[in-house]
Automatic annotation (TrEMBL):
Protein name: Putative glutathione S-transferase
Chain positions recorded as glutathione binding sites: W93, R126, A127, T128, V129, E144, S145
Highest rank taxon of the organism: Bacteria
Listed GO CC annotations: cytoplasm
Membrane-spanning ranges: none
Pfam families from the UniProt entry: GST_C_2, GST_N_2
Claim: Transferase is one of the keywords in the record: yes
Residues of the active site: C60 (nucleophile), Y191 (proton donor/acceptor)
This protein's record includes keyword Iron: no
Site positions (Lowers pKa of active site Cys): Y249, Y292
Domain GST C-terminal positions: 168-292
GO molecular function: glutathione transferase activity
Keywords from the named record: Transferase
Length: 317
């Protein structure tokens, strides 16, 4: 992480913990949106690009939220993407030529932390992805995936004019309630289990994860989507965790009461989403495995398991 703009090379996957050994995630520091005049300039054809770039890791569920939203809304041609290597190096996320990542020679930076120090020379905190970067102002617009998907859906509507609305006004309350229900207990719940530093903290998180999965299994017995009867950002936020569960969390994070493939209704829901290219094309199993299993504190030998082999891999190209 960075302390007063200086990189500290000892990388610790535990962001913060409380006295009971519970994993605490850092809150995001850059929370702006894309300038309205730039959005208008693209809308009226005065300029072709928004002057932004999205930095992501395929391993990262939060970054993948932004990739899926970008694809669903048809923003590919307006928002170029740079994909870091899946393994965190001693200097954090890097471009170092891992297959499927953006080649280092196409990038003006080698490490993601360089974006943070350019945006704020005194920055203290972790250099996380996703980063929505301002290529003209040379600063970070936003580094919080929950904001970025709303910026894409709402603020960039004049640009994409998409039929789909990932957070319609009328459903907003329900969407927020669903997101909140799954964030702590599932999206971040698996991390709380994986990075717990006490037995109690692990068990608390493990129970939260499987209570929520049991609830979701019931929910998808009678619902096609997470909220109401249409695809929303809640589906994106749920999917990215489900897609990593059997592949990484079940083994590495010890959330091993059951696999997602043991839940018939959740599995059918995943298959429905994977038929949509925005979901399947932004799911990279090789990066997910290589990335999670490179976390030395949890897997000192760095051995990447060969399995599992899951039916839904057929949907990926
Ligand atoms: N609140 C952020 C969280 C992002 C985050 O934690 N990203 C992880 C990867 S999954 C990261 O970059 N970690 C690097 C680090 O902690 O040093 C968001 O949702 O955008």
């Amino acid at each position: 992480m960075l302390v007063n703009g200086v990189w500290q090379s000892k990388w610790d996957p535990v962001q913060k913990k409380d006295e009971q050994g519970r994993f605490l995630r850092q809150s995001s520091a850059f929370r702006k949106t894309i300038a309205a005049d730039r959005i208008a300039a693209v809308k009226y054809g005065a300029v072709e690009t928004l002057g932004v770039k999205l930095y992501v890791a395929y391993i990262c569920p939060w970054a993948t939220r932004t990739l899926i939203a970008r694809s669903l809304l048809g923003l590919e041609k307006y928002i170029p993407v740079s994909i870091v290597d899946p393994q965190l190096s001693d200097s954090g996320w890097q471009f170092h030529g891992y297959p499927g990542s953006t080649p280092a020679k196409q990038e003006s930076i080698s490490y993601i932390y360089q974006l943070y120090t350019e945006a704020d020379p005194d920055y203290t905190g972790r250099a996380t992805v996703p980063v929505l970067w301002d290529t003209e102002g040379h600063t970070i617009i936003n580094n919080e995936s929950a904001d970025i998907i709303r910026i894409f859906n709402h603020d960039l509507r004049p640009v994409h004019n998409a039929e789909i609305d990932l957070a319609p006004e009328l459903l907003l309350h329900e969407i927020d309630r669903f997101n909140e229900r799954i964030y702590d207990t599932l999206n971040n719940g698996v991390y709380r289990a994986g990075f717990a530093s006490s037995q109690e903290a692990y068990e608390e998180a493990y129970n939260d994860v499987f209570t929520t999965l049991a609830w979701l299994e019931k929910h998808f017995g009678h619902s096609v989507y997470a909220v109401a009867d249409q695809l929303t950002e809640s589906d994106i936020r749920l999917f990215v965790t489900l897609a990593r569960f059997d592949v990484a969390y079940y083994g590495l994070f010890k959330t091993n009461k059951a696999r997602i493939s043991d839940y018939a209704n959740i599995s059918a829901y995943m298959a429905r989403l994977l038929k949509i290219p925005a979901f399947s094309q932004n799911t990279n199993i090789d990066h997910i495995k290589a990335g999670y299993y490179s976390i030395k504190e949890l897997n000192p030998m760095g051995i990447v398991p060969q399995g599992p082999e899951l039916d839904w891999f057929d949907y990926l190209n």
